């Protein structure tokens, strides 16, 4: 099913999304990759506040290339989500509602998605130039010293993604293989 959704993501919408749904996200999302996740993890261990509120937000695992003149951001394709698996369950428990990346997630992440009624989306790898067209504003809001791995606040319009793991734990990567094997 095709769905237009708004970010931040409400509990109700997250629970309605089903594995295999095509979504077009409009609103505010954040970027964070390996280095930013590690720094957030360290902040939590020290009892410090995170630079972004997790509740109902979506993090896109992306490190952009430099913006061309007149554009808010350069190529903006997803990175491999499993690199954030060590950190994701804690962030989900803090209220993170969605993650966008590419590739499989660990069983611990899947359990945290179900426990928190969250969602894992996939964006198409290799399509960063096309995906960047949905990004209308980009602003570094934390960890500027990390360069492309800094945390950014993005405003997106009709950002295309696919629900891979829904709030019930249904995983498109598993069900698609079974469906294909039947043919």
TrEMBL record:
Domain Fe-S hydro-lyase tartrate dehydratase beta-type catalytic: 8-175
Keyword terms of this UniProt record: Lyase
InterPro entries, per the entry: Fe-S_hydro-lyase_TtdB-typ_cat, Fe-S_hydroAse_TtdB_cat_sf
Coiled coil: none
Lineage top rank: taxon: Bacteria
Database matches in Pfam families: Fumerase_C
Record carries keyword Cell membrane: no
Single GO MF descriptor: hydro-lyase activity
SUPFAM superfamilies xref list: FumA C-terminal domain-like
NCBIfam families according to UniProt: PRK06842.1, ttdB_fumA_fumB
PANTHER family for the chain: L(+)-TARTRATE DEHYDRATASE SUBUNIT BETA, L(+)-TARTRATE DEHYDRATASE SUBUNIT BETA-RELATED
Membership in a protein family: Belongs to the class-I fumarase family.
Protein's recorded name: Fe-S-containing hydro-lyase
Organism: Eubacterium ventriosum
């Amino acid at each position: 099913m095709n769905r237009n959704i708004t970010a931040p993501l409400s509990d109700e919408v997250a629970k309605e999304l089903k594995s295999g749904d095509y979504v077009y996200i409009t609103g505010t999302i954040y970027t964070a990759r390996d280095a930013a996740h590690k720094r957030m993890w360290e902040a939590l261990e020290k009892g410090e506040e995170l630079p972004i509120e997790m509740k109902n937000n979506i993090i896109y695992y992306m490190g952009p290339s430099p913006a061309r003149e007149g554009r808010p951001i350069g190529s903006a394709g997803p990175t491999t989500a499993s690199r954030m698996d060590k950190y994701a369950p804690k962030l989900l428990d803090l209220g993170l509602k969605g993650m966008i990346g590419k590739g499989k997630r660990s069983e611990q992440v899947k359990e945290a998605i179900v426990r928190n009624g969250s969602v894992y989306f996939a964006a198409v790898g290799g399509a960063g130039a096309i995906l960047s067209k949905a990004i209308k504003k980009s602003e570094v809001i934390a960890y500027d010293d990390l360069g492309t791995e800094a945390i950014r606040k993005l405003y997106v319009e009709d950002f295309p993604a696919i629900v891979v793991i829904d709030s019930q734990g249904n995983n498109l990567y598993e069900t698609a293989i079974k469906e294909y094997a039947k043919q």
